[in-house]
Write a structure and sequence with these properties.
It is built from eight helices and six strands; from the N terminus they run H-H-H-H-H-H-H-E-E-H-E-E-E-E. It has a two-stranded antiparallel ribbon with strand order 1-5. A two-stranded antiparallel sheet has the order 2-6. The longest helix has 19 residues.
Length: 219
């Protein structure tokens, strides 16, 4: 995947240094120069031998990663998906895995999960360290849980409230009083016409799911 992204940037005319630095920024938030150098070396090896180098790290331990446990993976995904957009970080995942997820499942690893491991898990699960651009806002209106709440709870409740409100009918905006049932009182709405935005002035990078577009220009 790294080589594919690197090759795409090179095809678009980016220099080797520029392309490798951008890949490093996407995959690692604190190892930019070292990781960029590794990306260039990996690309050079693949170009020369037409295959990836033999992986000599991890071995048995790598094969026994906790993320291969389907229950662990599901619990981690549930935790991440319930966090607000832009609030996912390796440190939060590390803390949740060590203090909540693994203890609840009854798993006691020999060593606590490290921040580095949590970062690798985020990448494997589809999150990327992404630069936040100016002039964008966090849009969660079409998230599955938001749509379900809107359709099953918010809109039916608002319909009940509107039945007890005055409405205005026709081109002349004729005032029509509500028909109240015994014991009901008229509801007088007090609307607050103001948009709510996430303030990201101090945030330059966020962990976001691959393929999602949570940051969009206001249209």
């Amino acid at each position: 995947m790294i080589l594919s992204n690197y090759a795409t940037l090179r095809i678009k005319g980016r220099s080797r240094m520029n392309a490798s630095m951008e890949i490093a920024a996407q995959w690692h938030d604190s190892e930019g120069i070292w990781f960029a150098r590794k990306v260039r070396a990996l690309a050079q090896h693949y170009q020369t031998f037409e295959q990836l180098p033999v992986e000599r790290r991890g071995g048995y331990r790598n094969a026994q990663t906790l993320l291969k446990d389907e229950l662990v993976k599901k619990r981690i995904l549930d935790y991440l998906q319930n966090l607000p957009t832009g609030k996912v970080t390796p440190k939060k995942l590390q803390a949740a895995v060590n203090t909540e997820i693994l203890p609840d499942i009854g798993i006691t690893p020999k060593k606590p999960v490290s921040t580095r491991t949590a970062r690798c898990w985020l990448i494997k699960l589809g999150w990327r360290y992404t630069e936040v651009r100016k002039g964008v806002y966090m849009d969660g209106h079409e998230r599955a849980d938001v749509v379900q709440y809107r359709q099953t709870i918010f809109l039916p409740l608002m319909a009940k409230f509107e039945a007890r409100m005055v409405h205005f009918d026709g081109p002349e905006l004729r005032r029509v009083k509500p028909i109240l049932q015994p014991g009901e009182r008229e509801i007088i709405p007090n609307f607050h016409d103001e948009s709510s935005f996430h303030a990201n002035e101090e945030v330059r990078n966020l962990w976001l799911r691959k393929g999602e577009q949570p940051l969009r220009k206001k249209g």
